[in-house]
Amino acid sequence: MGANLTETHELPISRARVQLAQGNPSAALAVLEPLRQQVDAKGWTDERLKVMVLQAVALHAHGEKEEALQLLGDALALAEPGGFIRMFVDEGEPMAQLLSDAAAHGMMPDYIGKLLAVFEAEQQGSAGESPHLPFTSAQPLIEPLSERELEVLKLLRTELNGPEIARELAVSLNTMRTHTKNIYNKLGVNNRRAAIRRAEELDLL
Predict the structure, then answer these.
(1) Which is nearest to 111 in space by CA: 101, 103, 119?
(2) Using CA atoms, how far apart are residues 58 and 28, in angstroms rounded to an integer?
(3) Domains with residue ranges and CATH for the chain
(4) What is the pTM of this model?
(5) For 26-44, what is each residue's pLDDT tens digit?
């Protein structure tokens, strides 16, 4: 079921990206608006964030700078508690421009500063001698895991399920889920097995 839901939303998102790449932001916005209402109604925060980020880029490309900045501000406020980085950085140069505009307006300086620093590091990487690697194996983490997150990561490697890990750490299931989500974001993965594999590549375990 979960995979189907993701596919249902990945499809219009991919279509909107193609429209943007072809220089047709109004077509991208036409695809994204109904999708945004759908994910808002379902309350899926991650999907909603993806749509908002892309909508902000499309609005900016469409020349609607004010609306783009407003929407980006909403997306940043939603994304900051989870420490999302890749969701913005993966949108490339148009997002870097939009974030620079937002920074000039004094919006969320700490978080935007962090995101722009990642863009800068990646640009330097691609301009340098060595070819730029995507965010995969053996690249250091942009944002290191906290002590608590490392504890959770070690337990994720065991056979324990979520509630058992929460009991082991003497925290609520909700807190445990927040830690897990932060770990996935920082490692650039979206499931337990991938998190363990990535952590092993980085010698975190």
Answers:
(1) 103
(2) 7
(3) 2-127 (1.25.40.10), 147-201 (1.10.10.10)
(4) 0.58
(5) 999 999 999 999 988 988 8
